[in-house]
Amino acid sequence: MRGPHNIWRLIRTGATFERTGAMHDVLDAMKAPPRLRLAARVLGWPFKLLGLRGDPALPPLVRALTALGPAYIKFGQTLATRPDIVGADLAIQLRYLQDKLPPFPLAQARAQFEAEMEMPVDSVFSSFSEPVAAASIAQVHRARVIETGEDVAVKVLRPGIERAFRKDIDAFYFAAGMIEWLLPSTRRLRPGDVIAHFDSVVQGELDLRMETAAAAEFAANTEEDAGFRVPRPLWHLSGRSVMTLGWAEGVPLGDNAAIDALGVDRAELATRVLRLFLKHAMRDGFFHGDMHQGNLKVAANGDIIAYDFGIMGQIDEYSRRVYAEILFGFIRKDYRRVAEVHFEAGYVPADRDIDEFARALRSVGEPIFGMDATRISMARLLSYLFEVTERFGMETRTELILLQRTMVVVEGVARSLNPSINIWEVAQPVVEDYIRGNLGPAAMARDLARTARVLSRFGPQLPAVVEAALIRLRTPPPDAGRRVGLHPVWWVLLGAAISGLGFWAGVAAG
Are 424 and 273 a contacting pair, CB within 8 Å? Predict the structure, then answer.
């Protein structure tokens, strides 16, 4: 599926942009230099008639992306949150992609629910509306449960969506392979791995059972977060292609006029969005990975309501600590510590010069922190940091791609609410709070206590492990005399001793 036949799909992409007029809009938004404009038009024009027409009633870029398919629509949804990149006019146009796509017929949605749940729609719901929102992968209907009278949102996958995504992703894999072959210098960025990561995210989004589980976990994690709500899923009315959640009543987060009409302070709302995202990522290691305006509402009381949990991010505890230390180092302008963290985590090869790397990081941070609040940008920081790490041989960290992308998206959301927001001032309290709780003596005591608990579970096996190590000690291999360091038996005994200390440290700390 990833062979040369995908060249046609890539050619058609450029041709579609040319035919719909999107090429001109994109080049203008990018402020492309004259040479690039000329090259793009010369290369695109001969294939223009091969492009898809799309819906002439839509704006050019939206028309091109919707014609090309769901993967391109996903890309457009991300750009909708970045008016500083594509411009305010294009950002407004692209918001159409978040929840205003053409729906599929109500009859198909009802049939899909009945096939998935093996029960008639009318036996479960007293009402089942026409689509209230339609996005790239699914559409949503409002319904009322007969048994409880509760209003719910019923999400149903688009018919044939899995096959459509498969075609697009196959073309992306092919493009990544061609890039690696034609430009060997890009291999350290692992474009194939990046596409594989995107592929895995999409596959999870196409199974609504996974989204239902994510919604339940996210709701439990954030239950105590003030000013934030997650609708609870109804497991007995959810399956692979259907998901049912409690109904979320509110105005879209992208509608500033409606938010103002509610009397909600948009500056405070922008701060809350950004801090909640950072808190979820650092505290829980489980965050909403698609926090654009189309997936957020504002309730009448000002609460932020999140929905659409098809893309969720997860970060292990060690990576969270590394990421927090990097952010904290930039906030404090401690570039030496930021460099040390990169080396300690293995992000930068050990044979590089740490002092030179620290100076390069200073060249990233200082210009940004010297800007006024309206120009301080996480997107700009990540862009500059990417350039520096490329020079020092840092490989792409696929496990952090979604976190970095979502951070850029959330920044765009926050700026759409409050253009003058100072991203770093907003982030600082959350990062400092995480650092205090997870990198101090109390955190060390917790780590030791957890180590003790893990070893205690293997307690019955420890005597046999020690005995086997002692037997090996009595019959060492021929080259044992040339080895340097502690014998494995001492590591076992030392680990047991540390575990005992960790247990008592944990008792004392807790």
Answer: no
